[in-house]
Amino acid sequence: MTDPQAYARGFAHLTAHTVDPLLNLVRKSRAPRLLDLGCGTGVVTAAALALGADVTAVDSDLDMLEHTARAHPHATVRLAALPELPFPDESFDAIAGNFVINHAPDTPASLAELHRVLRPGGTLALSWWKRDEMTATGVLAEAVQLAGLPHDPMPARDLDPHDAPAAFTALLRRAGFSGAGVDTMRWRHRVGLAAWWDYLTAAAGPRFAFILDLDQETTEQIREAYFTLAAPYAEEGFPVCAHLAHATR
Fold first, then answer.
1. I need a surface site. Which of 16, 36, 232, 243 has the fewest CB within 10 A?
2. DSSP per-residue codes, 144-160
3. Cα separation of 159 and 137, whole Å?
4. Residue 61 φ/ψ, nearest 5 degrees
5. What is the pLDDT of residues 172-229, one digit of tens each?
6. Is the predicted pLDDT of residue 1 greater than 60, yes or no?
7. Could you tell me if 121 and 249 are in contact, meaning their C-beta atoms sit under 8 angstroms apart?
8. C-alpha distances out from residue 21 to 25, 126, 219, Å
9. CA quadruple 18, 91, 168, 7: dihedral positive or negative?
10. How far apart are CA 44 and CA 22, in angstroms?
11. What is the pLDDT of residues 101-138, one digit of tens each?
12. Whole-number average pLDDT of the chain
């Protein structure tokens, strides 16, 4: 489980940069029934509701769902996760998944399931991190390694063989989507270094949560290494990059 309050104060601000591009297709198609896939604390849900969409928000984390349900009572909230969704065929006019396809255990099966629950002519928009340009979390992964702990800075994902734009576009086409394409978006994430340390260790999930369970000396070693590595980004922010896929059923 992730602390929703900590996530909303920190990591959600990083992921919010891609919300408007993800919802561009919804604006164009005036899609009333939208699935917010992996809703987290409801950043996409809030933006879609503001557009007048009928939003169903799903996540695999019950704490996140409870947070979203309280914050957005006009959305339908369901506990669900790819690659199997509890909805009939052609249930939605649009699907937006902000940094969730990178967590799916079976990418091809997940895209097939999204194709199933989307109506003909419906739109799909998905985002995921370009891992080798994800400095905002990379500095902490490197800090853990500098402290001498065995830690994989880039844990394997099922998405990895497909995460390049051309490969993911091909995968969308094989799943039956048309008009498939992948755009790339870069920006600087500006945040206080101390605050970002707190957010990452409290709300970035199991990848970094273990740090606070270490002995005090080791945790402090990691913290000092983090501040050294993060210092060059204190003024202009951490450079990050995401891919944004779009397609039509």
1. 232
2. HHHTT----SS---TTG
3. 18
4. -105, 115
5. 999 999 999 999 999 999 999 999 998 888 776 667 888 888 999 999 999 999 999 9
6. no
7. yes
8. 8, 10, 38
9. positive
10. 9
11. 999 999 999 999 999 999 999 999 999 999 899 999 99
12. 91
Give the β-pairing of 54-59 and 76-79: parallel
State the Cα–Cα distance between residues 241 and 41, nearest whole angstrom: 21
SS3 79: strand
Q: What number is the average pLDDT over the span 157-175?
A: 95
Cis before 83? omega within 30: yes
58, 110 Cβ separation under 8 angstroms: no
CB atoms within 10 A of CB 120: 7
Strands 54-59 and 33-37: parallel
Residue type, 224: E
- In the structure encoding, which two tokens stand for residue 87, read together? 């909805």
At 157, is the pLDDT very low, low, confident or very high (cuts 50, 70, 90)? confident
CA distance 68 to 156: 29
